[in-house]
Amino acid sequence: MSALGAILAREARLAWAGGGGPAGPAAFFLGAITLAPLAIGPAADLLVAVGPGIMGFAALLSVLQSADRLFGDDHVDGTAELYLLSGVSLPGLVLAKVLGQASATLWPLPVIGLFGALMYGVPVLPACVGALALLAAIPALSLIAGFAGALAAGVRRSGLLIALIATPMMVPVLIFAAGAGRSALAGDERALANLLLTIAVSLATAALAPFGIVAAVRSRMG
Amino acid sequence: MLSYFSNPQRFDRLARTLIPVFGSLTVVLLGVGGWLALLGSPPDYQQGETIRIMYVHVPAAYMAMALYAALAVASFVYFVWRHALADTAAEIIAPIGALFTVLALFTGSLWGKPMWGTWWEWDARMTSVLVLLLVYLGYMALRAALEDAQQAARTGAVLAMAGIVNLVIVKFSVDWWSSLHQPASLIRLDGPTIHASQLWPLVIMILAYSFLAGWLVLYRLRSQALRRRARALQRQRDQAARQREEAVS
Amino acid sequence: MSDFLAMGGYAAFVWPTWGLSFLVLVGLVAHALVERREAREALRRLEEDEA
């Protein structure tokens, strides 16, 4: 158990050290939610209506930014083979890696999402629900990004490939997480259901994705 | 039985007998189905003559989904038993499935314009088919990006299997997301809600498309075997040439 | 006959869908046949060079 804890801590440290840790996804997120109104137009009621959706959409794209680093770097420098030899539970190792990096780099997203929603004119309570949904979505989003990154490890200019692979897999969590914010805004009774569904998808992904990632890493070996 | 037919010669014999059968069935069924769809069935009470689009749109959408299921099964067989034939089958199926998906989208759009007034509707069905297209493209892109054939095969298998699990959840979540979806009218617990005069042409067209897909996969599997023999011969040739060069120098 | 072609006024929608579908099916078959012919020729050329 302490081995997995060590891996979690190492991933978090690496994420902070190389590439500015949380700065990457946060900067992208901030950029995206700043640009969106410039494209959509400043009509206040329109921005309120699309606010929760834009937050979810932009957060999803931000997570994809660092997808290639997690397993791509290990593939290139041979660390992946060491994992397979280490004797540690592989799905556990993979889960620790992904969640380690996610906790270090993605924590700003719910915070920025909250303030972003407020800036779009969303009232406080729905904005908080939306931010909570983003938090609940992070495990699913980061694990799917990790899976896509593991499949495309070491491929040159893998960004587009990773996005293409990850996008269909992120559809459910996006629907539920953005849906929570939208339902809270509209005041219909689905807000809690959407939030619970987001948590459910994250839990299911945490249970299944590690095995997929291990299979993906193995399939890319020699 | 799977392992029995994973033997290339035995599979080739099976394919050689099935290919003409599938081919003739396809031609007959397309002929009958096409005639029934365009001439031998009445226009719809509500949709008029646009119902005839259904007879090409639904089979295309059905094939899009059925072929992905076949892709996932072939990938699973390859992943577990490492039968090379299964991987080749998966590789062949993907672009065919993607093409049917695009066809489903275009015919769906042309059906939607007279029906709903818009070229595209973000409803559960069309959105799911669009996501399915992305899944196909992702699979094909991944295989194309990996130069090592064995890595491409193994990695593709992992992605395809993850994809089928994902598609089930996507279907549920997109249904949840959309409140305007049409309930599936073909199979329902209390019997099909579609009329017999429309059901027959539809079923025949779906069967025709299925046998066509079967023909395509089997026929192209045999072609791939030929190409592999050609590649092996070429490699032998190149190796012999290199050895001769080394002997000289 | 002209009623048939007119498709109740929806000809602009019905015929393109059938035309597109026909093109796709024919294209798929044609591609498979061409692929087989090219594979067979490539193999024959290699086997002839051998002899």
What tags apply to this protein structure?
heterotrimer, A: 222 residues, mainly alpha, 10 helices, 0% strand, B: 249 residues, 7 helices, globular
Summed up, the helix count of chain C is 2
Based on secondary structure, the structural category of chain A is mainly alpha
Please, how many helices of chain A? Answer: 10
Estimated radius of gyration of chain C: 21 Å
- Mean pLDDT of chain A equals 90
Strand content of chain A: under 5%
What composes the largest sheet of chain C?
none
Number of strands of chain A: 0
Q: How many beta-strand runs of chain C?
A: 0
Secondary-structure content class of chain C: mainly alpha
Which parts of chain C are unreliable, with pLDDT below 50 for 5 consecutive residues or more? none
Query: What share of the residues of chain C does DSSP label as strand, in percent?
Result: under 5%
Largest sheet of chain A: none
SSE order of chain A:
HHHHHHHHHH
How would you sum up this structure, described in words?
- The complex is a heterotrimer of chains A (222), B (249) and C (51).
- By secondary structure, chain A is mostly helical.
- Chain A has 10 helices and no strands.
- In chain A, α8 packs parallel to α10.
- The longest helix of chain A is centred in the last third of the chain and has 29 residues, at 191-219.
- Chain A is elongated and about 55 Å long.
- The relative contact order of chain A is 0.16.
- The mean pLDDT of chain A is 90.
- Mean pLDDT of chain B is 89; it is low at 180-192.
- Chain C has one domain (2-50).
- Chain C has helices spanning 2-6, 11-50.
- The termini of chain C are far apart.
- The mean pLDDT of chain C is 89.
- Chains B and C meet through α3, α4 and α7 of B and α2 of C.
